[in-house]
Write a structure and sequence with these properties.
single chain; alpha+beta; FAD/NAD(P)-binding domain; D-Amino Acid Oxidase, Chain A, domain 2; 4 domains; 18 helices; about 25% strand
C-alpha cells in the first residue's frame, strides 16, 4: 500500500516502523524493512521532488542501489557518468585527475545526479516495495515511554497535528538531527568548521575530455570550490569557506555577492564560468562535521546525516546515507525479531557506520593538511598539528588499508605534502606487503610445493577471533569477526578463517593444522581442505595477521 501527502488526516498511522525523512537514508531503510515484511511508514516534511545539494556519487553506492532495486531507474535517468575527479590541490596549481578504474574494475564509474530526480527515484522505489509514504508531514517530536521510543508526533501540510504509534523509529531526518538534539548527544568536530554557499549556473564550460563529467575541485586562498556538471545542462558550483568568516561576509554583502567574490579569486573555476549565468538563488548550508554520541537505543536508531555528517570534500554524503539506511534496517529487523540481541547488534551498527565515517574524515584531514599551495587563516587552522597522530603504522591501515581502495591515499602522496610520519607509515606498510608477497611467490615456485605446509605460522600481536553479530541477508546474525590492532572493532570472517586462526599457536605447522581440522575427512576432502587452509594462511600472512611463517 502507498499513500501520498493528500491522505486522510484521520488515517491510522500505526505501523511496525516509522521512518523520519524520505531522503536516501530513509528510503533505503524503508525499502529494506518492507522487504522483510514489516509495515513501514515514511513521514517526509517536504513535497517531492525537492531541492537538495550533494549531486556527486561514489562508485561504492552502485552496489547498494543495486541491492535496493533502484539501479535500473538510475541507469536510465540520463544522469552523467562520473569516472573520477579533477583537482587543483596540493603542491601545484595545474589540474590533475584520478579515476575510479584505477582502484575498481568492477565499478569504474558513478553518476552526477540531479538530486530532486535521484531522491524521487529512491522514494518511489520504496513505495513500490509497499512502504506508506506521507509527504508534507513533519515530525516534531519522538514519543518516549521511559527511554523507549514508541511513536512520533507530526504536523501535516494543513497544519494539523497527529501521532503515529510504532514499534520502532528510524531517524533519517538529515541535518535537522531530530533525535540527537532531543537526546543532547550531538558532538561537533573541532577540525571541520566550514560553511558552504552554492548555486546553479547555465553555460559553464566543461573540463577537457576525458574528464568532462568529472567533479572539479579547486583549492584557493580562502577554501575550496566545487563544480559538478549535470545532465540538465546546469552546473552545481559551490564554495566551502571558514564558517565564521563566511557568515560575516554573507551578512555584510548577501549570499550572491559573497559567492561571486569567492569565484572571482579562483583561477580555473572562474574561467569555466566566464560565459555562464547563475540561474538560481544561492543557498547557504553549514558544513560543520558532527556525530551523535550514540546511534541507537530502545526502539530507535539514527541513520544518514541524522547520525553524523562529514566534510563534503569526497562526496561521501549519499554513500554514507545509503549504507547506513541498509544497516539500520538490518538492526531494526534484528531487534524486533530477537530483543536479546538488540544491544549487541546496535553496537555493531554503530561501529560499522562510524568506521566508514572516520575513514572519510581521516582522508579529508590528510587532504586539508597536504594542501600547501595557499597560505591563509582557512588553511592554517586546518593543518594537522598533532603529527604524532600519524606516527604509528596502524594509522595508515585505519585511514586507508582498512577500507575499499578509493584512490585518495595515493593522491595524497603523489600530489600533496602529507605529514612526514604518515608518508613513512605508508611506505613501511607498502614495502612490507610487497616483500611478503614476493616471498610467497618464491615459495610457490619451489618444486617442493609442500614448503608452505611445513611452515609454522605465528600470529601478530593483538589478533583475536570473536563471536559477534555480522550482517547477513538483511539482518544481523551470530558470526565471527577478526580483531586486530588496526581494526579493534573486528572484521567479519568466515568460519574457516576463524577455525584456522584458532589453531595457530606458534608450534603447529600448516600441515598439522590441516590434519587436526580434517581428521574426519576422506582423501579428496583432505586435499581440498589442505588447499583452502594453505591459501588462507597466505592471505593472512600478506595482510599481516600472520606475523611470521617459520620455515626450515
Amino acid at each position: 500500500m502507498t499513500t501520498d501527502s493528500n491522505a486522510d488526516p484521520n488515517l491510522d498511522l500505526s505501523a511496525d516502523v516509522v521512518v523520519i525523512g524520505g531522503g536516501p537514508a530513509g528510503s533505503a531503510a524503508a525499502t529494506m524493512l518492507a522487504r522483510k515484511g514489516w509495515q513501514v511508514t515514511v513521514l517526509e516534511r517536504e513535497q517531492f521532488p525537492r531541492d537538495h545539494v550533494g549531486e556527486s556519487l561514489l562508485p561504492a553506492s552502485i552496489p547498494i542501489l543495486e541491492e535496493l532495486g533502484a539501479l535500473p531507474a538510475v541507469e536510465t535517468a540520463s544522469f552523467l557518468p562520473k569516472h573520477g575527479a579533477t583537482m587543483v590541490w596540493g603542491s601545484g596549481d595545474a589540474p590533475w585527475s584520478w579515476y575510479f578504474k584505477e582502484t575498481s574494475q568492477r565499478y569504474p564509474h558513478s553518476y552526477q545526479v540531479w538530486r530532486p530526480q535521484f531522491d524521487q527515484i529512491l522514494l518511489d522505489n520504496a513505495k513500490a516495495q509497499g512502504v506508506t509514504v506521507l509527504e508534507g508531514h513533519q515530525v516534531t517530536e519522538v514519543i518516549f515511554d521511559g527511554d523507549e521510543a514508541i511513536g512520533v508526533e507530526f504536523t501535516n501540510a494543513q497544519g494539523e497535528s497527529g501521532e503515529a504509534q510504532c514499534r520502532f523509529v528510524v531517524d533519517a531526518s538529515g541535518q535537522s538531527t531530530l533525535l540527537a538534539r532531543h537526546l543532547g548527544s550531538k558532538q561537533w568536530d573541532p577540525f571541520f568548521r566550514n560553511l558552504a554557499v552554492y548555486a546553479y549556473f547555465k553555460g559553464a564550460k566543461l573540463l577537457p575530455e576525458p574528464d568532462q563529467n568529472n567533479i572539479f575541485i579547486e583549492s584557493y586562498r580562502y577554501g575550496w570550490l566545487w563544480s559538478i556538471p549535470l545532465h540538465t545542462g546546469s552546473t552545481s558550483v559551490g564554495a566551502v569557506v571558514d564558517s565564521t568568516i563566511g557568515q560575516e561576509g554573507i551578512q555584510q554583502n548577501g549570499a550572491k555577492a559573497f559567492l561571486e567574490a569567492q569565484l572571482a579569486q579562483s583561477g580555473h573555476t572562474r574561467a569555466m564560468l566566464e560565459n555562464a549565468e547563475m540561474d538560481s538563488e544561492p543557498t547557504v548550508v553549514m558544513d560543520w562535521s558532527y556525530t551523535a554520541e550514540k546511534l541507537y537505543g530502545p526502539g530507535y536508531i539514527l541513520a544518514g546525516d541524522a547520525a553524523c555528517f562529514v566534510d563534503p570534500l569526497f562526496s561521501s554524503g549519499v554513500h554514507l546515507a545509503l549504507m547506513s539506511g541498509v544497516l539500520a534496517a538490518a538492526y531494526v529487523t534484528t531487534a524486533l525479531n530477537n530483543a536479546s540481541m538488540a544491544d549487541e547488534a546496535g553496537q555493531v551498527y554503530q561501529e560499522l557506520y562510524l568506521k566508514e565515517y572516520n575513514q572519510f574524515r581521516e582522508m579529508a584531514r590528510l587532504f586539508y593538511s597536504s594542501n600547501l599551495s595557499a597560505e591563509s587563516y582557512f588553511w592554517e587552522a586546518r593543518r594537522i598539528t598533532d603529527a604524532g597522530a600519524y606516527s604509528p603504522r596502524q594509522s595508515f591501515i585505519q585511514a586507508v588499508a582498512g577500507q575499499p581502495p578509493r584512490g585518495y591515499e595515493r593522491v595524497v602522496l603523489d600530489r600533496g605534502q602529507a605529514p612526514e610520519e604518515f608518508v613513512k607509515s605508508v611506505r613501511a606498510v607498502e614495502s612490507e606487503r610487497q616483500s611478503r608477497t614476493q616471498w610467497l611467490a618464491a615459495l610457490a615456485s619451489d618444486p617442493q610445493r609442500n614448503q608452505i605446509l611445513n611452515a609454522v605460522p605465528r600470529l601478530a600481536e593483538g589478533i583475536q577471533v570473536q563471536r559477534k553479530p555480522v550482517l547477513a541477508e538483511g539482518e544481523f546474525v551470530e558470526g565471527y569477526v577478526l580483531n586486530t590492532v588496526s581494526q579493534p572493532e573486528g572484521t567479519p570472517c568466515s568460519p574457516l578463517v576463524a577455525a584456522v586462526i584458532e589453531e595457530i599457536d606458534g608450534q603447529k605447522s600448516v600441515s598439522d593444522i590441516v590434519d587436526g581440522m580434517g581428521a574426519h575427512l576422506d582423501q579428496a576432502g583432505h586435499a581440498q581442505l589442505e588447499e583452502a587452509v594453505s591459501r588462507t594462511i597466505e592471505i593472512l600472512y600478506v595482510d599481516g595477521t600472520v606475523a611470521r611463517l617459520i620455515t626450515d
